[in-house]
Amino acid sequence: MKWITREYVKVDRVACPWLIKKFVDKGAEFIFVPPDNVMDEAKRLGAIPYDVKNVELGHHGKECSFEAILKKYDLTDDPALLLLGKIVNGADTDNTLHHQPEGPGLNAVAEGFRHLGFKDDHAVNAAEWVVYDALYAYCQKMVRDGKPNGAFCIVADGAHLRRAFQNGGSSIVHL
Q: How far apart are CA 151 and CA 139, in angstroms?
């Protein structure tokens, strides 16, 4: 199957191809075009558009395209993928939906990949997928350790808030 999105990839347009290739369509072919050409090229090529406005596999409310793919392809039963979705969302949006602490770090890494001189979006994806492999491994470990919101997320229950207050209230509490 062919999948199409905007050129000059960053967070969601790297995370989504990783997710699609690993869990949805192992033979996926990805196409990156100027934003104004996505829908015409999708129709011409019979490709599935993602991470563009007004498509099923795009942003909806505060959810990002990665989360739309998780839902559409019934991947929400994997808590590690759900956590990864929160991290991707935190990197790709204003991070007000999940307040995921790892998000800004992923955004910085993704921005760095844009400046490493790769020849095109395919090369950026090929290089950066190892980051998503590592993040997925981290998410699996967090789930196994009983931390489905990640290692750095403060859960708003009494015990955790007391612990945060005892630590001065201004530091990140590792749970």
A: 9
Strand partners, 2: 29
Instruction: Note whether 6 and 13 are within 8 A (CB).
Output: yes
What pLDDT, in 10s, does the model give residues 110-167?
A: 999 999 999 999 999 999 999 999 999 999 999 999 999 999 876 554 444 444 444 4
What is the value of pTM for the model shown?
Answer: 0.88
Of 111, 6, 127, 95, nearest to 57 by C-alpha is 6
Distance between CA atoms of residues 118 and 156, nearest Å: 42
Cβ atoms of 143 and 136 closer than 8 Å: no
Distance CA 152, CA 90 (A): 13
Torsion of CA 40, 46, 51, 54, to 10 degrees: 60
CA–CA separation, 3 vs 25, rounded Å? 10
Contact 73, 24 (CB under 8 A): yes
Domain definitions of the chain by residue range: 2-144, 149-175
